[in-house]
Design brief:
alpha+beta, Beta-Lactamase, single chain, 7-stranded antiparallel sheet, Arc Repressor Mutant, subunit A, two-stranded antiparallel ribbon
């Protein structure tokens, strides 16, 4: 299976004084998320966070009152609260790009029957804000909404990276280069030679990697009036199906959808 970042990564602690309660609350949320569908018991949370049961009960009670965690049964496991879903939906639709991209992805799925995604830049990652699978779903680096793909991996992240300001792109590459080479066999030089090509041709193809060597795809950026990337439409399919003619059809249709989204965002 591909190595993805769909499970929430442990975020670095804030160094600002007076944030201990906030740090611990985030640790609890991430620990519950990491446990997945079964939820997390007090014993598991204590082991994962190194917090005492008394501290956990105090923080969980407050978090439950805000809707950030749920306790369906009195003595059962804790789950992430529905308030996080509400906040996440609002965060994921900043500027309306997710809402505008959803029908575009549905149209592309109906036409090509492949898997289509909406990615946005999120620090050192490309974050999947939306995905739809057609009749021919395939393996990809993003297996769910909210999955994070290391920038430099896959065509969606390349479409975004190629249109970032030079300084921002350089910072991301410097940070990600060791993991890209170690985990995916993607070199820094291969990435840098790709960016100019992507900007010239208007779409990205994923670089060959060791995780999904038999899969490919294309991605097109969604650019605002200043040519800054607000997102990228991406598709994934087995390499054997990506003929030159099929790629041409994909790129043309995805460009049209990206341009339509950009125009509506501008309006």
């Amino acid at each position: 299976m591909p190595q993805t970042d769909s499970s929430p990564a442990r975020l670095p602690r804030c160094t600002t004084q007076g944030t201990q309660t906030l740090d611990r609350s985030f640790d609890i949320l991430q620990a519950i998320a990491a446990r997945g569908a079964p939820g997390a018991t007090i014993e598991e949370l204590s082991a994962d966070t190194q917090l005492s049961r008394a501290t956990l009960y105090r923080l969980l009670k407050a978090m439950k009152s805000y809707g950030f965690v749920r306790l369906p049964r009195l003595r059962g496991p804790y789950f992430l609260g529905y308030q996080l879903l509400s906040l996440g939906a609002q965060a994921g639709n900043t500027g309306g790009v997710r809402e505008l991209a959803r029908p575009a992805l549905l149209r592309l799925c109906e036409t090509f029957q492949d898997s289509f995604f909406l990615f946005v830049q999120d620090g050192y990652y490309a974050l999947c804000l939306e995905l739809h699978e057609g009749a021919n779903p395939t393996q990809s680096f993003a297996d769910c909404v909210g999955a994070r793909v290391l920038s430099g991996v896959g065509q969606g992240s390349l479409a975004l990276l190629s249109h970032l300001p030079t300084a921002a792109r350089a910072q991301i590459l410097e940070h990600n280069a060791p993991r890209l080479l170690r985990e995916y066999a993607i070199s820094d030089s291969a990435l840098r030679s790709t960016f100019k090509q992507v900007r010239q041709q208007g779409y990205a193809c994923g670089l060959a990697d060791r995780v999904l060597p038999l899969h490919t795809g294309v991605a097109v950026p969604i650019l605002d009036a200043d040519a800054a990337p607000v997102g990228a439409l991406s598709c994934a399919l087995p390499s054997v199906r990506m003929t030159p003619l099929y790629q041409q059809r994909l790129v043309q249709a995805m460009r049209q959808e990206a341009d339509r989204i950009a125009q509506r965002l501008g309006a």
